[in-house]
C-alpha cells in the first residue's frame, strides 16, 4: 500500500496551519510544499490514475450535533502526476512531487472564520485516485 505525506518546503511543520506566504485579499498567496509517496512494509505498488494537490475554501453550516451543510467556495487544483494515456492504471512508487500554487489577490473565498453555527476554512489537500479496493469506501486517498 502507499502512504501520502504532505509537507512544506518552508515554514513551521509543527504548526496548526500549513505555511503560506502573502495576505488574503491584499497580495497573492503562495503555497509551496512536497507530496511524498511512501510504500508500506509490504512494498506493494498501488495502481493509480492521478495525484493532485488542491487549495480549497469550504463553508460549513453547523447544527446541534454536526455539520448540516458544506459548500466548496474556491478550488485551485494542480495535477502532480497522471498515468499514461495508453494504460488504464499505472503503479505509483516512492517519489517526491513538489508543488507551488499561487492564489490571486482577488480570490473569491473568505478568511478563516469560526462561529457557533458557521465555519469557513481553507484546506490543502492531496488526492491520490487509485484502483477500486475491496472493503474501501472510496477510490481516493
Order of helices and strands: EEEEEEEE
Q: Which bin fits the share of residues in helices?
A: under 10%
Structure class? mainly beta
Approximately what portion of the residues adopt beta-strand conformation?
over 45%
Mean of residue pLDDT values? 87
Q: Which blocks of ≥5 consecutive residues have pLDDT under 50?
A: none
Which geometry do the CA atoms define? globular
Rg of Cα set: 17 Å
- Count of helices? 0
Largest sheet: 5 strands, antiparallel
Total strands: 8
Kindly report how far apart the N and C termini lie.
11 Å
Can you describe what's shown?
- The protein is mostly beta strands and 141 residues long.
- The strands form 2 sheets. Strands 3, 4, 5, 7 and 8 form a 5-stranded antiparallel β-sheet that branches. Strands 1-2-6 form a 3-stranded antiparallel β-sheet, with no helix packed on it.
- A hairpin with a 4-residue loop joins strand 3 and strand 4.
- The chain is globular and about 45 Å long.
- The N and C termini lie close together (11 Å).
